[in-house]
Amino acid sequence: MQKNKITIEAIDWQPNKNSKIPLYQQIIDYISKKITSGAWLINDIIPSQRELANKFKVNRSTIVYALDELIAYGILETESGSGTKVANNTWSLLYNDNNLNWKTYINAGEFIENIPTIQIINELEFKDYIRLSTGELAPKLFPLQKFQKISSLLTNKITSLNYLGPLGLLELREELVKHLAKVNIKATTDNILITSGSLQALQLLSIAMIKPNAKVYTETPTYLKSLQLFQSAKINLKGIEMDQEGIKYWQINKDNNDSTFLYTIPDFHNPTGITCSLTRREELLKFAQANQLAIIEDSAYTELYIDEQPPPSLKSLDNSNQVLYLGTASKSLAPGLRVGWIVGPESIIKRLGDVKMQIDYGASSMSQWLMYEFFHSGEYDNHLQNIRQELKKRRDEILSFLNENFNKHASWTIPKGGFYIYIQFNQKISIETLFKKALHKKILLNPGNIYDYKDNNAIRVSYVYEDIETLKESLLVILKLIKSEEKQGK
Question: What CA–CA distance (Å, rounded) separates 19 from 426?
Fold first, then answer.
């Protein structure tokens, strides 16, 4: 049976040393509550005695006493070579009944759990850690005054918040038709489906458009590799190398599978920051047309250009209707709105709309009205202008800092927009060790191997979330850890 290792980082509790309750009893009570609540499941491996002692700031003997008590109760048990695991829960102890093993239910589903590193990242992003890699704008960049203005404008327009049609709010889709026309994407309201972020668009495609065991090609590294939704649908991901011009499309070995897709982020790629050149885009489209290869174009960062607008989108260059275009407000405005869109042939959009109605019966009506008003009032374009200026300031300052401090230890691509600088270290180091050591310094980073099909030597750094000084100080800590790793590797 699969066993889950409970990470010490997942524990956010400390015993109260001023309490009249003995420390060992507080620890017993805490562990018991985690188990009875279902947070820790039967067969889960708990952290080691040393880790728990360090975390709770108590003597190891206190931990030993508490664990021995729990073992005596039959709640925990020790396995030779495997550590201490959850053996029982108090429901079954109270009722003297057979154990209900929730792990059996969890493992019965089709959806694959995230790898442990991503689970840790997802949990600790909302705790007291410096977020070195996070993929969202800093809260202080949220346009609060514009949002308040937009909200007041909607007061007299919204007469209800009932369900909307399968494709989403008509008024929002009409605004998107005009918005897309600015970048030469021709669409009607019937070509647009409103989704709960572009991530949901990928989920809809994975369950409605792509056969099990089909191939989806991606750049390597790629954001998509950090997700499990395609793998959960039994879809095979295949990485294709990149250079500074973009994906090396000629390495795609297109087989005779009608549902084969290419997923690509041509603008300010996540995580590398590379922008696909116009020549490479044109060549890619010719290849796709010749090989009947459908393309999913993720434009999450397209509007966040710094130096200049990126080349025309694949969708705008597409004369064969082979490109599905994903857009979102999560990166440019606010991820909490959960508003995205997918643009494609009417038959595809209708199919995806039908599936979406079965999943959630439509994205938030309130969020769609807010997004409509941002477009309609012109405030969205004004906001983008402000964000681009802030992105340029932050990017340039961090690039200058990296040139001064990291030049002898790493290389990176200069992004022309988006959020990320992908730092690749010159000497081979253990990225997993770096990740764990950074956590001990209260720094949370995204190691490059969560995006790659093989081990790599990189981290993703975002210059848009933490303030610049915090980011610099954190990078200096990372540099110190890197130098230590380099010495050990010699």
Answer: 51
Residues 6+ apart with CB under 8 A from 426: 408, 409, 410, 411
In Å, the largest CA–CA distance within the chain is 76
Helix (H, G, I), strand (E, B) or coil at 440: helix
Q: What is the pTM of this model?
A: 0.81
The CA dihedral of 86, 110, 435, 453, to the nearest 10 degrees, is 140
Mean per-residue pLDDT, 121-125? 87
**Contact between residue 230 and residue 275 where contact means Cβ atoms under 8 Å apart:** no
d(Cα 405, Cα 353) in Å, to the nearest integer? 50
| Interval 77-115: pLDDT, tens | 887 777 899 887 654 444 444 555 565 666 677 887 788
Q: Are 8 and 118 in contact (CB under 8 A)?
A: no
Q: What is the pLDDT of residues 464-488, one digit of tens each?
A: 999 999 999 999 999 999 988 766 6
Q: Give me the pLDDT at residue 253, please.
A: 85
Cβ 325 vs Cβ 343: under 8 Å: yes
The DSSP call for residue 476 is H
What is the sign, positive or negative, of the torsion defined by CA atoms of 153, 158, 163, 167? negative
Residue 52 in tokens: 């728990």
Give the CB-side neighbour count of residue 300, counting CA atoms within 13 A: 30
- How far from the centroid of its chain's Cα atoms is residue 490's Cα? 35
Contact 443, 477 (CB under 8 A): yes
Phi, psi of 436 (to 5 degrees): -70, -40
Distances (CA, A) of 71 to 17, 55, 86: 24, 20, 9
Q: How many other C-beta atoms can be found within 10 angstroms of the C-beta atom of residue 307?
A: 13
Cα–Cα dist 479/405, whole Å: 8
Instruction: Kindly write down the DSSP assignment for every residue of 286-323, as one continuous string.
Output: HHHHHTT-EEEEE-TTTT-BSSSPPSPPHHHH-SSS-E
Question: Kind and range of the H or E element at 236?
Answer: strand 236-240
Are the C-beta atoms of residues 441 and 477 closer than 8 Å to each other? yes
H or E element in which residue 77 lies: strand 76-79
Give the sign of the dihedral formed by CA 199, CA 204, CA 209, CA 212: positive
Q: Which of 389, 401, 406 is nearest to 464 (CA)?
A: 389
The predicted-structure confidence for 202-236, as pLDDT tens digits, reads as follows: 999 999 999 888 899 999 999 998 888 888 888 99
Q: DSSP per residue over 25-41, as a string?
A: HHHHHHHHHHHHTTSS-
CA distance from start to end of the chain: 40
d(CA 208, CA 211): 8
